[in-house]
Amino acid sequence: MSISTSSSPSSNGDTENMQAQIPHCKERCLVCDDKSTGYHYGTPSCNGCKSFFRRTVLEQRRFFCENNDNCTILPKIRKEEKRRQCRACRFRKCVEVGMKPEGIVVEEEEAREALQVAIRNQSALQQTKITSIDEHCNQFIHNLTYTEFMHHTYRRSDSNPYPVDPQTITDVLQGFTPLGQPLKEMPNWPLPCNFSVSSLSFEEHAQYRIPLPRCEGPLPPTLKFWFYADFVAAIEWMKTLEFFRALDQSDQRELVIFSGWQIANITSSYFAFAKGSDRMVYPDGRFSVGTPRDAERDVVRNLIHMKIDRTEYLLLKSLVICNPSCETISEYARSILLQEREKLSKILFNHIMDYHGRIRGPSRFGEVIALESTLLHQALKSKHLHSLLAALQLRPMKIVLMDEICEIKHLV
């Protein structure tokens, strides 16, 4: 995404008028006390704080302080040094000293839309103080709830990635995320009950060695290939997580391979549970054909049996990706996942203890955590099924993203 880095007006006349209204620039950045390079977004600031404010607003990031919003923001000592300090307090300070999103100049349409959202919701820029553990937990869960809403909105939207797209995991990771952007809902859903690309499930195609149907001619625009679209949606959801964005791209890719299928399946399973179905059902009304039936029911039935609540589901979904047992990630990534997993586990445990009490709470916590192994088992079964379809040459085309996630090499 190409974005203009200039914060000055576009015309000479506007520049002269603005300079006449702005007093002489102070020597120090009002955010971090580094040397100021000028007035950026209405405030004397350094280039680092200017860029940080711009990124935070345009990408609609949310940060949370674990130190009662009481962190000191300091300048970098050396050029090559990275700022390893609280981003929540740094952004709060940017807002407090007067940085305004209206001063940001952008060129790309996507960036303009994000900026318009930020300007309309300027009150959201003022981050409230976290004065207790309970308030921090509530804010964290609220943030997960909003992220889930974006995920659900994207699944129901007319954004429709096709399996023939040659995009890789890295392509999706590097692309501009549609989550949080204005999206149109897919029209004419649910689809007719008799609508189906194939009358057989993927499992039956593999069992009876029947090739998957080749779609001839243009497909209805309302048709989604959910086994593929949900992987793209899962990666986009991962990209919204702050700890995931802190990882190197190679570690991000390994986590997608390790837990992408689990994220897609827990999302579909909870949607089915919320709709009162004991089978995976999609927003267009169709049932799953890409997941082995017994593996599909493993998760949905557990959700029904446990009567899992939304907060438990949101925290479980986040725990799935915070799995340090992934053998192919770096030690740095593993340490980040361990820290995040500890935080998520504490929040989940406190939530369950509050709702189920001291007697029932601990066993309930164990049941929710045990769903992780069920999801992993389900993912392995699904990967095996798609690998088998590829090995038997029953697929009508090579699906690059699926092959990466299933770690299929030179089979088709």
Question: Summary?
Answer:
Residues 26-106 form the Nuclear receptor domain. Helix content is 53%, strand content 1%.
Task: Characterize the structure shown.
It contains 14 helices and two strands; from the N terminus they run αββααααααααααααα. By secondary structure, it is an all-alpha fold. The protein has two domains: 12-131, Erythroid Transcription Factor GATA-1, subunit A (Erythroid Transcription Factor GATA-1, Chain A); 140-405, Retinoid X Receptor (Orthogonal Bundle), CATH 1.10.565.10. A two-stranded antiparallel ribbon has the order 1-2. Strand 1 (38-40) and strand 2 form a beta hairpin. Helix 5 packs antiparallel against helix 8. The protein is globular. GO terms for molecular function: nuclear receptor activity; RNA polymerase II cis-regulatory region sequence-specific DNA binding; zinc ion binding. It is found in: Nucleus. Its main location: nucleus. This is Nuclear receptor. Residues 187-408 form the NR LBD domain.
What attributes does this structure have?
Retinoid X Receptor; disordered N terminus; 412 residues; Erythroid Transcription Factor GATA-1, Chain A; mainly alpha; two-stranded antiparallel sheet; 53% helix; single chain; globular; 1% strand
Query: Strands of the biggest beta sheet: in what spatial order?
Result: 1-2
What is the count of DSSP helices, taking H or I runs of 4+ residues? 14
For the record, give the distance between the C-alpha atoms at the N and C termini, rounded to a whole number.
Answer: 34 Å
- Biggest sheet statistics: 2 strands, antiparallel
Shape: globular
Which fold name is given in CATH as the topology of the largest domain? Retinoid X Receptor
At the first level of CATH, the class of the largest domain is Mainly Alpha
Average per-residue pLDDT, rounded, comes to 81
Flag low-confidence runs. 1-24, 126-132
H/E topology pattern: HEEHHHHHHHHHHHHH
Total number of beta strands: 2
- What oligomeric state do the depicted chains represent? single chain
Radius of gyration: 24 Å
How many structural domains? Answer: 2
Decide which structural class fits the backbone: mainly alpha
Q: What would you say the CATH architecture of the largest domain is?
A: Orthogonal Bundle
Name the CATH homologous superfamily of the largest domain: Retinoid X Receptor
